[in-house]
Every structure is written in structure tokens, then in C-alpha cells.
Design the sequence.
């Protein structure tokens, strides 16, 4: 059974960098879209971006300037950094596995999710 | 990229059927069969309920079904049960971005 677990600081100061890591267990990272999704308190979900095995990375255009996603398949981990955070970046951050039905399919769906990590931006 | 439009809330009595709509454009829902639906209970991570418009993952009740017509996708819950009370989100592939999310719908079982 695939499991994902987010880890990182729960409190970040304004203007600093938010950093989270997702550890994947129970399966290989090969062939999937490893994604970050966030949800501000009381609001809807927002896709942040993904890293695909082999190094392809794609970001939400609205966040692209401040976001970096990286991966370490040897550790079965992938990470998120968000620069210059403000209170608007306060959210529960989820990591999720994106699965496509066939190689190079343009779309994918999120079949496994982490439990989520609340990150609060405050001084 | 604008979010997909969902009704803010839908309600129904136990045993009834309800349908949640998700409206996009020809660049997302209308152009591709990559719509998925997620159920989220308070304080929990979203759970995949439907993928690629109408496919149900193993373990998901057959009371949940999905469809699409033009630029609108729909999730139908038949035989509504108390445990179905949750928030529901649609997601679609888009020619502009790999994942565009719906605004979310709160389902209430009366």
C-alpha cells in the first residue's frame, strides 16, 4: 500500500522560505506525477505543481515565480520550496501521487494523498 | 487559468440521488476526458472517487457515478447516505495547465 507523509516546519516567518518534504513508501516513484496541492483554511484546493520521474517539472503559472519542486528518487522523497511567503500562503499542504492511464497521457488523477501538513505564516 | 465552477452546496435526503455539476471550457472539460472527482471529509485528505470522467477506483461504492456533456462534468450520488456528507471537488486537465481545480461543493444530507 502506497503511503505519503509530509514533513517540515509548521510555522514560517513572513518573507522567508517555506520548505516541505514528502516521503513515499510502499511503492516506486517511477512513472508517476508527484504533486503538491494546498488548501487555505476554510477554502478550496489549489494545485501547486509536480515533478515527474525523469525530472520533468511543471508549476501552476500563478505560483511559478516563487515555487521550486525537486526530487530524490534514491530516498523516495520529493520537496517543495515557496519563497517570500506571506499570510496568504498559510494552508494545509498535501503531497499526492498523480497517475496517468498510459505513458505520455496528457492528464492524470490523484490516487494517493498524504495526510496534509498545516503551515502557518506568521511573525 | 480560472477555476472550474461548482455549486457551493447541494443537499438531499437519505436515499435520494443528487448531482454535482462542474463547468469549464473547451480548453479543459470540453476538450479532454481527464475529469476526476474527490471527496473530502473535514480535517481529512481528499479521496479519489471517479477518474477519467466515469471510472470508479476499486473500493469506491457504485452509488457514485460520473459523466460529461460538453463543457460540464457531473458527479451523481445515488441512495444518499449520511456518510456521503462532505465536500466534493472536480479536477480537469487543461491545455493551459495540467490540473485545474473546481471551486468545491458542500454536500449536506438532510
Sequence:
Amino acid at each position: 500500500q502506497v503511503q505519503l507523509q509530509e514533513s517540515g516546519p509548521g510555522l514560517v516567518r513572513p518573507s522567508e522560505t517555506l520548505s516541505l518534504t514528502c516521503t513515499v513508501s510502499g511503492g516506486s516513484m517511477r512513472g508517476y506525477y508527484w504533486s503538491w496541492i494546498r488548501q487555505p483554511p476554510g477554502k478550496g484546493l489549489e494545485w501547486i505543481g509536480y515533478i515527474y520521474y525523469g525530472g520533468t517539472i511543471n508549476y501552476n503559472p500563478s505560483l511559478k515565480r516563487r515555487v521550486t519542486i525537486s526530487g530524490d528518487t534514491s530516498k523516495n522523497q520529493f520537496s517543495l520550496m515557496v519563497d517570500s511567503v506571506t499570510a496568504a500562503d498559510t494552508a494545509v499542504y498535501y503531497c499526492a501521487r498523480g497517475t496517468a492511464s498510459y505513458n505520455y497521457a496528457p492528464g492524470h488523477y490523484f490516487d494517493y494523498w498524504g495526510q496534509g501538513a498545516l503551515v502557518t505564516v506568521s511573525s | 487559468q480560472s477555476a472550474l465552477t461548482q455549486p457551493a452546496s447541494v443537499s438531499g435526503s437519505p436515499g435520494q440521488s443528487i448531482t454535482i455539476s462542474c463547468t469549464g471550457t473547451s480548453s479543459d472539460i470540453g476538450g479532454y476526458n481527464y475529469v476526476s472527482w474527490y471527496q473530502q471529509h473535514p480535517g481529512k485528505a481528499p479521496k479519489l472517487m471517479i477518474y477519467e470522467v466515469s471510472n470508479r477506483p476499486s473500493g469506491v461504492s457504485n452509488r457514485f457515478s460520473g459523466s460529461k456533456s460538453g463543457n460540464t462534468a457531473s458527479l451523481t450520488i445515488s441512495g444518499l447516505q449520511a456518510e456521503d456528507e462532505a465536500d466534493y471537488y472536480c479536477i480537469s486537465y487543461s491545455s493551459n495547465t495540467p490540473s485545474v481545480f473546481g471551486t468545491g461543493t458542500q454536500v449536506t444530507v438532510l
Chain A touches chain B through 25 residues (CB under 8 Å). The mean pLDDT of chain A is 94.
